[in-house]
Amino acid sequence: MRRHVLAAVAASMLGLVACEDHSPVDSWTRASGSLALSLDDAFLYVVDADTGVLAVVDTARGEKVGEVKVGQGPERVVVGPDDTVYVSNRAERSVSVVRRGQWSEAARVQVGVEPMGLAVSPKGDTLYVVNSTALDTTEHGTLMAVDTASLTVRWELPVGEEPRGIALVDGGRRALVSLFKHSDMVTVDLSDSHQPRLMKERTDLYARANIDGEPQEGDIFVPQVRALFRPRGMSDVVVTPDGKRAFSPALWAREDPLAPAGSDPGGSLYGGGGPCNTAGVVAPGLVTFDTDDGSPRVDDIDRCRPPPDDEPDFPPSTLVSPERSHPIQGPVAAAVDPSGLWIFVVNRETDNVAILPTDRRSGADLSNSRLSSVRQLVRVGSGPSGIALTRDGRKAYVYNAFDHTVTTLVNDASGNVANVRAEGVPVAIVGDVLSPQAAAGRKLFYSALDSRMTSSSVAASCASCHLDGREDGHVWGFPDGLRQTPSLAGRKVTQTSPFHWSGEFDTLRDFMDATVRGRMGGTALDGVMVAQLSAFIDAIPTPDNPYRHDAPTPAQARGEAVFQKAGCATCHEGATFTNNQQADVGTFNVGGTLPDDASVRSKGLNTPSLLGLARTAPYLHDGSAPSLKDRLLRNRQSNKHGDTSSLTSAEVDDLVEYLRML
């Protein structure tokens, strides 16, 4: 077991003390992600996405005492006020119901596509389920209410594109729902149990994070060039005990051009020019929201400006490690201690948990040369995906998804000094079902810690852009032009040489070597590592698709004929839907601030696979097409992207339906 480098901190300041009064359902988020605790903390519930298992751990004995087979790809778990356990099965469009003590599945409720976030009403009569997409469209996800007595769906409400996390506030009368790829927060009014309504579809998060104007007194950092950052990967929502603040782990992605001049001294494209106190252009963050009106409370990301004197302070919007050699990256889950003073953030890509204040970014106990607001950085196992704190705040459990183990963290109080540390041997939950090659490749893919893959100044992993092995919906300003992140999931990527949008890499090793060393600051990438990464990429599950049915619909069948008529199959052929050739389809940028490089324009773009199109908007190499129909109609008279000028409106609609099912 790894040694843990921890900083001492006063127990009273950490707030790791017992709370005397508790309602049947905790009024704050003490667990998120793949872990939850029973109401009396006697049992820890762990979901493992690889094996489709809910494991039950006796916390007093530190032993696994039960295993429940649930649906495929379980991601989240939550406990109701009657100690009923609910599990969202992401790969099966269902929620499993497990009764305490029975350790078997009592029921399985059919919900939407890729269910993720779960919450139970304070009375326990309603289970709220966040579905990544609706059953009939990928244009929005939904919030669904399930009656816990009858296990029937009461209502379903559209809540924006790719929602992910949920937290209840105001006594369960409102819900905060996080949007994942194009990150923001949605507020839903739940006061009428039969007629929910959207109170706020989006916030001004992006505008607040990128305040323009002249530098002001107190600015800690003023860049030489105007930099813009967009939030992505907002995976969860957690709430403080007083219900006044909510926090969402997120990533900040640089939006303006990534020029070589902005790279770090090592020459890595992803290094340098990061937001507030960070070095890399993909930076870990924690976004604060005021639950009264759902508005964000972020500092100016690019200038690191402190809050106004007349406003309460809040945590920094970027997470900076207090240790130069051990970065923070990939925040995916969080929990708040019972005092409400401290938040524990789980970082999947750097195998650690950051503990920082919920109401400030400075203080004598936080002083260090790196300007970090993290009080402690605790090492855990590989790929942590969830955390649960006991009611008294003296213990925390972390699930290491890639090791399939649970690490127990304890507050070892001695006088006025507390030391959060790992206790005992991690508890084994299940065995690994991935092949040894794919399992090793997954650790490489998600690592922003392994020096072979990235430098400590860049601290980026493959997953920093390819969220969940898919894509981030972001358009990057590379030196050769605007490039959107392509999805890797279910696309048979290893069979589609050459690689990259420009097709300049003949082998996957060439492409990975250029990416790892030239962009991420890694030091090595040998044949073994390439084979491991390739094995994992091939194993990434295909995203669920509401347009894919047992048999094509009439519109999809007609659309397949249109696909042939328009000559789409000339380039998008075979099982991978690409001929692996270069082509100019009339989409190059020849003007503007970041035109496509002339050498790229002369050769054409690499024909991409069409697999999984329904979940990968925006489209084209520069992300300029917000929808498939928009792409088909734009410049259609040129016939450079298939014979589209002769298609009728009905044929275009049918073609879209066919493309969506791929």
Strand content: 25-35%
Question: pLDDT under 50 segments (min length 5)?
Answer: 1-25
Number of strands: 34
Sequence of strands across the biggest β-sheet: 1-27-28-29-30
What is the CATH class of one domain?
Mainly Alpha
Could you tell me the mean pLDDT? 89
- Assembly form of the protein: single chain
Instruction: Tell me, briefly, the overall form.
Output: globular
Distance between the termini: 45 Å
**Helix/sheet category:** alpha+beta
SS field, number of helical segments: 9
Please outline the major beta sheet.
5 strands, antiparallel
**Rg, please?**
24 Å
CATH topology term of one domain? Cytochrome Bc1 Complex, Chain D, domain 2
CATH architecture of one domain: Orthogonal Bundle
What are the SSEs and their pairings?
Blueprint: H1 11-14, E1 31-33, E2 35-37, E3 43-48, E4 53-58, E5 63-69, E6 74-79, E7 85-89, E8 94-98, E9 105-110, E10 113-120, E11 126-133, E12 141-147, E13 152-160, E14 163-169, E15 174-179, E16 184-189, E17 197-200, H2 205-209, E18 229-232, E19 238-239, E20 245-254, E21 282-290, E22 295-296, E23 331-336, E24 342-347, E25 352-357, E26 376-379, E27 384-389, E28 395-400, E29 405-411, E30 420-428, H3 436-445, E31 475-478, E32 481-484, H4 508-519, H5 527-539, H6 554-565, E33 582-583, H7 598-603, E34 605-606, H8 628-633, H9 649-661
Antiparallel strand pairs: 1-27, 2-3, 3-4, 4-5, 6-7, 7-8, 8-9, 10-11, 11-12, 12-13, 14-15, 15-16, 16-17, 18-20, 19-20, 20-21, 21-22, 23-24, 24-25, 25-26, 27-28, 28-29, 29-30, 31-32, 33-34
